[in-house]
Amino acid sequence: MVIDVDKCVGCYNCFLTCRDEYAGNDYPGYSAPQPMSGMNWMKVVEIERGQYPHVKVDYVPVTCSHCDSAACVKLDQTGAIYRRPDGIVMIDPDKAKGNKDLIKLCPYRAIEWNQELQLAQKCTMCAHLLDAGDPEPRCVESCPSGALVFGDLDDPASAVSRLVAMGATEVLHPEYAMGEKVTYRHLPKKFVAGTVILGDVDEVAVGADVTLSGDGKTWTVKTNGFGDFEIEGLPANVTFAVKVVAPGYQAAACETKTSKDVYLGEIVLTK
Question: Residue 123, Cβ neighbours under 10 Å: how many?
Fold first, then answer.
């Protein structure tokens, strides 16, 4: 699965349809019923960024990554957690009964504890539906914006294979190095934003050139109809030089560091 954060609108359909499919529903051999509350196998993490008046929210759906080298499979000594030939990592609902230690085996904390059934559980990628011939899990089927893309990585013509082949996908925690099969596009990075004002007329500067230099790279954008600019996707903890140029005005320059998302405020150009 590839999840495009830019396309996620935070509608929570993925969460809701997962709950609809599993809460109170038993699929023998695949999964026991989820409790009616307190558990979800598809979380939508809201990330608020920036500061007033330039604030934005990203939504990052998070589920089991079904890793090639899954720590849970390697560390489980009971045989309750296993990886199917198609790559889906499963928890046997019978073998896992009563073993709460299983929830400690995933560094992503994707395994949850069903207190009522005394059972470790997690996303099954809707294996029961895929085995019955459905083309995709419920979360993907219900996504109205196309943020979730599911398919066969062994098929180079599949949409998911094409996205991965573009080299634009990444995992939430590359340091885990587990061969995650749920990857992401456009994960939130740092941004630098601001508003450019023409000081002599006290009007916003439309179409001013803003250049950001640092980390051996340069980004250039133009201010929009409100005099605002934003440069997104920046590395963290890097000092950048900012230069603003508009015809007929003196250039303005400053420095900023992406220890957080930065709103520079109003940058006033003078004649």
Answer: 28
- Beta carbons of 162 and 213 less than 8 angstroms apart: no
pLDDT tens-digit readout, 11-53: 999 999 999 999 999 999 999 999 999 899 999 999 999 988 9
Which residues are CB-neighbours of 153 under 8 A, at least 6 positions away?
A: 87, 160, 161, 164, 181
Amino acid residing at 239: T
Q: End-to-end alpha-carbon separation of the chain, Å?
A: 53
DSSP helix/strand/coil, 143:
coil
- Cis amide leading into 33 (omega within 30): no
Can you tell me the distance from the alpha carbon of 98 to that of 78, in angstroms, rounded to the nearest whole number? 12
Which sign does the torsion angle of CA 162, 164, 166, 172 carry?
A: positive
Which pair of structure tokens corresponds to residue 165?
Answer: 């082949």
Say if CB 190 and CB 261 are below 8 A apart. yes
Give me the phi and psi of 43, to 5 degrees please: -95, 145
Report the C-alpha gap between 96 and 127 in whole angstroms: 18
